[in-house]
Design goal:
With 188 residues, the chain is α+β, with helices and mostly antiparallel strands. The protein has a single domain (2-177), classed as B-lactam Antibiotic, Isopenicillin N Synthase, Chain (Jelly Rolls). The chain has 5 helices and 10 strands. The chain has helices at 2-23, 29-35, 106-111, 150-155, 168-177, and strands spanning 41-49, 61-64, 70-75, 82-86, 89-92, 101-104, 121-123, 131-139, 145-146, 166-167. Strands 1-8-3-6 form a 4-stranded antiparallel β-sheet. Strands 2-7-4-5 form a 4-stranded antiparallel β-sheet, with no helix packed on it. It is globular, with a radius of gyration of 17 Å. It holds the Pfam family 2OG-FeII_Oxy.
């Protein structure tokens, strides 16, 4: 499992560099911001959603955004359930074999000054089988200072800086205090 996690961590870092390229930021910028004094954090969570004969009576995994950085999700290739909110409507993310769903969390929304969004999503209960997923989270270090990239703020003449500067651990405490349900919970 450790080797698997190391490869996923490397993949997350490669994706961060691709985001830098797309944003016109220096290669490694996002990794540097995530580093803090102790380096980024990386963790993996395995989830099991058993079949439910009356899915309309339970919530599954409540709507939320991911508080961290970049999330790599291996979802069940047979049983659906993941949905994202798009234009006020819940949209199914169909299970696809041999694929990884990449989700950007709240910290990337802040660093990109809103250019990339942290998407609200949920998992709904299903009647047709066990749904398994493996989610790996590449997050800033606890003492990392998160704020919009100055270069992106300069390019956004009309909006300026959309988000304040904060310490990642402080954000996580606020997020937990709000019962993990809020989207980018910083005061504009």
């Amino acid at each position: 499992m450790k080797e698997f996690a190391l490869k996923l961590e490397k993949l997350a870092e490669q994706l961060l560099d691709l985001l830098c390229e797309n944003l016109g930021l220096e290669k490694g910028y996002l990794k540097k911001v995530f580093h803090g004094s102790e380096g980024p954090t990386f963790g993996t969570k395995v989830s099991n959603y058993p079949p439910c004969p009356k899915p309309n009576l339970i919530k599954g995994l409540r709507p939320h955004t991911d508080a961290g950085g970049i999330i790599l999700l291996f979802q069940d290739d047979k049983v659906s359930g993941l949905q994202l909110l798009k234009d006020g409507q819940w949209v199914d993310v169909p299970p696809m074999r041999y694929s990884i769903v990449v989700n950007l969390g709240d910290q990337l929304e802040v660093i990109t000054n809103g250019k990339y969004k942290s998407i609200e999503h949920r998992v709904i209960a299903q009647t047709d089988g066990n749904r398994m997923s493996i989610a790996s989270f590449y997050n800033p270090g606890n003492d990392a200072i998160i704020y919009p990239a100055p270069e992106l703020v300069e390019r956004s003449e009309e909006n300026g800086q959309e988000y304040p500067k904060f310490v990642f651990d402080d954000y996580m405490k606020l997020y937990a205090g709000l019962n993990f349900k809020s989207s980018v919970i910083v005061v504009h």
